[in-house]
Amino acid sequence: MIMKRPSIAWGVIVLAFCAALAEGDEKNRIQVVCQIFRLAGNIPSKTSVDEPIWTTDEAPEKLKNKVVVFSRGWFKLGKDKLEFRDGGCFWNKKEIPLGGPEKIEWPEELIRTVYSPVVLEMEEHSGREFRIESTQPIQYFERRPDGLFELKETELDTGLHFNITEAVEEEDKGYIRLTDIEMMMRTVVRRERIEGVNLPVGRPILSEEQYTFYFRVRPGKDYGILISPEQGQGGLLLRLRASSTRSGTLSKSSVGEKEGK
CA of 241: how far to CAs of 19, 51, 77, 121, 136, in Å? Predict the structure, then answer.
């Protein structure tokens, strides 16, 4: 019995060493979650940034006046208010669930959900893409030769392609670096104008929009990306949050629906 004790002790040490080695070899996983909204009209808003977000120190020249990335901001939508503050996103002071804002009653004439949530999970130093292809039935009015209006319906090929080339965690700086984020959307952006009618009820016009971003974010914190259209008012608003296992912000309870393939 006395001779077996050292063997048992050495066995415990070996097991502990193997467990520590396995834990050290576990790859860091990074998850990026987005909610995409479309804004209509000239909406009062204010945005700001209190940290270096762009990996190029400032927004690239080709994105200036088109893309604004911010950590704090608000949008006034009638009597309602959408806010980015304290690392979260809030609707009338209540945090919007990251899994989707289905229970929120949006003022549809000012804001609507395009996609929510878009989830991409990957190992560090790798990328992931998410793609949705869909056929969307849309109704519209067309003026007949007799002057009356006829309700018609058409089907349009809409979709979303969201791709992250590489995600790297800069642990010493406390950031997750995303390079590049490529986004392509095919959506209805406006309607054909019907003479004498002020309402947007004409034939829908489909547009393909493409954007590329590259910036750094703090794990577990919400950021806003405001994309202004090349023509007209309104635009796209993205809520983005990146989390990781290394930082402790990614857990089993994180969002997992609509994951990128």
Answer: 31, 15, 23, 12, 28
What CA–CA distance (Å, rounded) separates 261 from 254? 17
8 by DSSP, 3-state: which?
A: helix
> Six-digit token pair at 249?
């912000």
Task: Report the alpha-carbon distance of residue 70 to residue 221 in Å, rounded.
Answer: 11
> How many residues in total does the chain contain?
261
* DSSP single-letter state for residue 54: B
Angle at 42 between CA 162 and CA 240, to 5 degrees: 25
Are the C-beta atoms of residues 158 and 182 closer than 8 Å to each other?
no
pLDDT, tens only, 46-64: 999 888 887 666 666 566 6
What would you report as the CA-atom Rg of the chain, rounded to the nearest whole angstrom?
A: 24
Determine contact, residues 130/120, Cβ cutoff 8 Å.
yes
Q: Is 109 helix (H, G, I), strand (E, B) or coil?
A: coil
Q: What distance in Å separates the CA atoms of residue 237 and residue 81, rounded to the nearest whole number?
A: 14
pTM (two decimals): 0.75
Preceding peptide of 57 cis, ω within 30°:
no
Task: List, as own/partner pairs, every contact residues 247-253 make where C-beta atoms lie below 8 angstroms and the sequence separation is at least 24, other chains included.
Answer: 247/169, 247/171, 247/176, 247/219, 247/220, 249/219, 249/220, 250/29, 250/30, 250/31, 250/219
Whole-number mean pLDDT of the chain?
A: 81
Q: What's the CA gap between 106 and 126, in Å, rounded?
A: 36
CA–CA dist 72, 88 (Å, integer): 9
Instruction: Give the other-Cβ count within 10 Å of 67's Cβ.
Output: 20
Handedness of CA 222, 162, 255, 31 (dihedral sign): negative
Domain ranges of the chain: 31-244
